Amino acid sequence: MARPSLLAIVCNVGSTLFTLTSTNCCSAGLAVGLAFIGPGVGQGIVAGQAVEGIARPEGKIRSTLGLALLLSLAFMEALTIYGLVVALALLFTNPFTPI
After folding, report:
1. Which residues does residue 27 pair with via DSSP β-bridges, in sequence order?
2. Assigned CATH topology for domain 33-93
3. Residue 12: CB partners within 8 Å, gap ≥ 6?
4. What is the domain partition of the chain in residue ranges?
5. What is the pTM for the complete model shown?
6. pLDDT tens per residue across span 56-70
């Protein structure tokens, strides 16, 4: 068995040996970080505009505005979850394993 380099983390779970290279770890962190920045900024802008719209005195569309806000926030949060799934795939898959 080859010795792992200094840039690898080796975890022995049961009888399976997992090797996480520094590239996988950095890529996973970058995927999560970028996936959280966009929806976070978007959610802040959308929520601010929705609060301004609800606070208007002629606000007859408060219920539909609240429903549209919740629906759009759910779609933005889905992008964050996709980034988390990509990060987990980067951490727990080995691209060098022969198929």
Report:
1. none
2. F1FO ATP Synthase (1.20.20)
3. 18
4. 33-93
5. 0.61
6. 777 677 778 888 888
